[in-house]
């Protein structure tokens, strides 16, 4: 174990994590030069060559250090986005060290800070690296100061590197050997292995990436999952270099893959502990938790006969995404569809895009919502993940909404604008700390406000400089009401939402006026109303189409007219007939476009 180093790379998106990882692999000879495609670890072709699929950027590297010794360096991937912070914490729990890679022309970003704090909390040694030193805009001194101020680690001697030009690569590996501690663990104890990641492969079933903490694991061993008590027969173990290489054994301190004929991803939960049936470990490794969906939305096929196809597509996606949840749901307006649970908005977008691109589904997506806890007058508590299912207000004692604690890092110039935004979103400031040229703001915010459009707004008020990280804090009661939308007098369940009473009238007005713009004229007048209970708070009308509209606008110019009609035809696919009115997809998401007071 003395010669093992387990480490991961913490970097903000685009700061050069993948490029650097590729350099390490190249330097350590994991792949021949001809096998290095643009970015090896993401490449599908290479996956084919390896035989089994590799999801994470994980590589067991052999490095001959300047001290003449040969080291086994395990690079463990960490996902980059806020939605996946639990996975990040599990990857870090499997490491003794982490490289904090910072773009020397950009500086430190909130996401990286959050991950660094997670690493430091877990007792992981954080080693700073300045990347992109080749850029003329690089300001290493300023960025070093920033790292020291914000992250609070020594960075004066940080390696100055260029992953792109291959500068400083060996120096970084030397730092890993020198500063990252070797793993400790009991090689003779009962097996304890942490599942860092798991994914589904069509040929061999579930592949787990594990860090063996104690003991050892061999093919033919009977393994036991400590959270579910499920037992399986270990079929194969090995490492990724990043090619998959079978091994006879994985020992304490090592990182590698395990294949055990498991068919369902849900059986191999990230963070769970794998032990042997005999002898079994007594206690699991700390830190396991079930990940819960944070954001919900309804997904409906535009054509109702595509319902089964949508189910199949969702099932296929779920094979490789245990955090995607879905249940059939019926909407009066949209027909049969699914209520889906996601880790966050990005996750929702990824799923939606994959369904559309890879599975060729035409979908109507309802506005994302969070889950509410409703305390009923009879003392029971129900969870509501679809606003239209909110119980009758007469029976409700209180509605509680999820509150998150968010950490926002922003340059001083934009602090005022960000604070204004947080206040508009019903935020409560918890802390404000000056760190060099940046300010770290901590706010408690209702998650419902954040899932709407907070991230985009934050970026726009800070010209892209602010970055955000968040954690769930608690459910808290507030004065929340259900806002319904009626189209020609009919309540459209898929358009209901839960809002704060103080902003309900304003939101209702904005929403119907936005919808008036988005719903195309039809042969008759369309009334769009917003209501709270029986009380109508806003109304707009989409006037009936006059027969000669087309002729007037495009009189004579037949090609333009054709184009317009074609466009309408293409647009049609994403319309949903509700009663006798056609409503386009955008109208279902209109609430996302309603600006704040
Ligand atoms: N000039 C310069 N560009 C670099 C360097 N390292 C990476 N890049 C470029 O920066 C961009 C982002 O690099 P990636 O390695 O994909 O960054 P990443 O952090 O892995 O990004 P994600 O995969 O999106 O999280 C690419 O266009 C790289 O070519 C460097 O040292 N110098």
Automatic annotation (TrEMBL):
Ranked from the top, the taxonomy reads: Bacteria, Pseudomonadati, Pseudomonadota, Betaproteobacteria, Neisseriales
Q: What is this protein called?
A: Elongation factor 4
Alphabetized InterPro entries for the sequence: EF-4, EFG_III/V, EFG_V-like, EFTu-like_2, G_TR_CS, LepA_C_sf, LepA_CTD, LepA_IV
Q: Where in the cell is it found?
A: Cell membrane
**In the UniProt record, what gene is named as encoding this protein?**
lepA
What job does the chain carry out?
Required for accurate and efficient protein synthesis under certain stress conditions. May act as a fidelity factor of the translation reaction, by catalyzing a one-codon backward translocation of tRNAs on improperly translocated ribosomes. Back-translocation proceeds from a post-translocation (POST) complex to a pre-translocation (PRE) complex, thus giving elongation factor G a second chance to translocate the tRNAs correctly. Binds to ribosomes in a GTP-dependent manner.
Give the organism, scientific name. Answer: Silvimonas iriomotensis
Q: What class of enzyme is it?
A: hydrolase
Where mainly found? membrane
Q: What is its EC number?
A: 3.6.5.n1
Which reaction does this chain catalyze?
A: GTP + H2O = GDP + phosphate + H(+)
What does the UniProt keyword field contain? Cell membrane, Elongation factor, GTP-binding, Hydrolase, Membrane, Nucleotide-binding, Protein biosynthesis
By sequence similarity, the record places it as follows: Belongs to the TRAFAC class translation factor GTPase superfamily. Classic translation factor GTPase family. LepA subfamily.
Q: Which residues bind GTP?
A: 14-19, 131-134
Single annotated GO MF: translation elongation factor activity
Any idea where the Tr-type G domain is? 2-184
How does it sit in the bilayer?
Answer: Peripheral membrane protein
Q: Which SUPFAM superfamilies match?
A: EF-G C-terminal domain-like, P-loop containing nucleoside triphosphate hydrolases, Translation proteins
């Amino acid at each position: 174990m003395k010669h093992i180093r387990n480490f991961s790379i913490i970097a903000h998106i685009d700061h050069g994590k993948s490029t650097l990882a590729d350099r390490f692999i190249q330097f350590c000879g994991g792949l021949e030069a001809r096998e290095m495609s643009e970015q090896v670890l993401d490449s599908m072709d290479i996956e084919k060559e390896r035989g089994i699929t590799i999801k994470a950027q994980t590589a067991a590297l052999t490095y001959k250090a300047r001290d003449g010794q040969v080291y086994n360096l395990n690079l463990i991937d960490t996902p980059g986005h806020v939605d996946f912070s639990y996975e990040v914490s599990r990857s870090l729990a499997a490491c003794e060290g982490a490289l904090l890679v910072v773009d020397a022309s950009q500086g430190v970003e909130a996401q990286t800070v959050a991950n660094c704090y997670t690493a430091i909390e877990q007792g992981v040694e954080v080693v700073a690296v300045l990347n992109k030193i080749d850029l003329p805009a690089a300001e290493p001194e300023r960025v070093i100061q920033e790292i020291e101020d914000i992250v609070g680690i020594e960075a004066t001697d940080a390696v100055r590197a260029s992953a792109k030009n291959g500068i400083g690569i060996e120096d970084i590996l030397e730092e890993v050997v020198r500063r990252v501690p070797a793993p400790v663990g009991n090689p003779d104890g009962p097996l304890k292995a942490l599942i860092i990641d798991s994914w589904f492969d069509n040929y061999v079933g579930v592949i787990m990436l594990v860090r063996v903490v104690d003991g050892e694991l061999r093919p033919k061993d009977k393994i036991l999952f400590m959270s579910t008590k499920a037992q399986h027969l270990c079929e194969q173990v090995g490492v990724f270099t990043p090619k998959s290489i079978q091994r006879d054994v994985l020992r304490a301190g090592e990182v590698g893959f395990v294949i055990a004929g498991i068919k369902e991803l849900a059986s191999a939960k990230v963070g769970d502990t794998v032990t042997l049936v005999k002898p079994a470990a007594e206690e699991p490794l700390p830190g396991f938790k079930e990940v819960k969906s944070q954001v919900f939305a309804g997904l409906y096929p535009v054509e109702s006969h595509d319902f089964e196809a949508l189910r199949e597509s969702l099932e296929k996606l779920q094979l490789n995404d245990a955090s995607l949840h879905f249940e059939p749901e019926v909407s009066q307006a949209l027909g049969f569809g699914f209520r889906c649970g996601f880790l966050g908005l990005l996750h929702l977008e990824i799923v939606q895009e994959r369904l559309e691109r890879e599975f060729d589904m035409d979908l109507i997506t309802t506005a994302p919502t969070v889950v509410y806890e409703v305390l009923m007058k009879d003392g029971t508590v129900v969870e509501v993940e679809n606003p239209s299912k909110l119980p009758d207000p007469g029976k409700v004692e209180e509605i509680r909404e999820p509150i998150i604690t968010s950490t926002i890092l922003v340059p001083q110039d934009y602090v005022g604008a960000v604070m204004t935004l947080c206040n508009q979103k019903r935020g409560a400031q918890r802390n404000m700390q000056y760190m060099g040229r940046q300010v770290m703001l901590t706010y408690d915010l209702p998650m419902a406000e954040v899932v709407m459009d907070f991230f985009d707004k934050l970026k726009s008020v800070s010209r892209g400089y602010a970055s955000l990280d968040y954690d769930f804090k608690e459910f808290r009661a507030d004065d929340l009401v259900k806002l319904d939308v009626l189209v020609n007098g009919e309540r459209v369940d898929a358009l209901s939402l839960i809002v704060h009473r103080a902003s309900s009238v304003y939101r209702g007005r904005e929403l119907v006026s936005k919808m008036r713009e988005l719903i195309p004229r039809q042969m008759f007048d369309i009334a769009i109303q917003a209501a709270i209970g029986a009380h109508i708070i806003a109304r707009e009308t989409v006037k009936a189409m006059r027969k000669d509209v087309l002729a007037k606008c495009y009189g004579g110019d037949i090609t333009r007219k054709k184009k317009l009609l074609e466009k309408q035809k293409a647009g049609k696919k994403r319309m949903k007939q509700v009663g006798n009115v056609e409503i386009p997809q955008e109208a279902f998401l209109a609430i996302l476009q309603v600006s704040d007071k």
